[in-house]
Amino acid sequence: MIGEADRADAAEAARVEDPVRRRVEDAVRxxxxxxxxxxxxxADRADAAxxxxxxxxxxxxxxxxxPQDDEQARMWMFGVARRVLATSRRGAxxxxxxxxxxxxxxxxxxxxxxxxxxSLADALANLDPIxxxxxxxxxxxxxSLADVARHLRRPAGTIRSRYARARATLRAALxxxxxIR
Length: 181
What we know:
This protein has helices at about 5-40, 45-60, 70-110, 120-125, 130-140, 145-150, 155-175. By secondary structure, it is mostly helical. The chain folds into two domains: about 5-110, no CATH class; about 120-175, Winged helix-like DNA-binding domain superfamily/Winged helix DNA-binding domain (Arc Repressor Mutant, subunit A). α1 packs antiparallel against α2 (about 45-60). The chain is elongated, with a radius of gyration of 29 Å. The termini are far apart. The mean pLDDT is about 85. Belongs to the sigma-70 factor family. ECF subfamily. This is RNA polymerase sigma factor 70 region 4 type 2 domain-containing protein.
């Protein structure tokens, strides 16, 4: 239960923070368009709004650090924007490096992502998407049927019957003389 003293403390905190809040709101109103243009000149246009949003989050989190002087506040906000942009670029470099490393590993690792046999690839493509996924999870990824059921969030019995049906369909597609029952 909130007591009178707690309410008074909250009201006092709101009064103290109110000038800071007003100062941040005014600075954001003045500088948001310029910050967005700053990002549009330095990053993909699609990323500019996200970068602005990230900058404004930092500004609000560090509102107490916003200088009183309008020109100093502008420079401070652009400094925040520059650091947000640098962080974004470092993240992009790391993501590209990781993607390159994963691509290189995928090219040299043993194993096959898809079947080499074109008839098997066609037969898999003709299966219901869930059935094809069950086959791939069991035979390429090494999952048990129970694991597949948990992964796909389906009952184990459903996965077992779909797996049996998918295998029979593949067998028939690969060897038309096979009788499906």
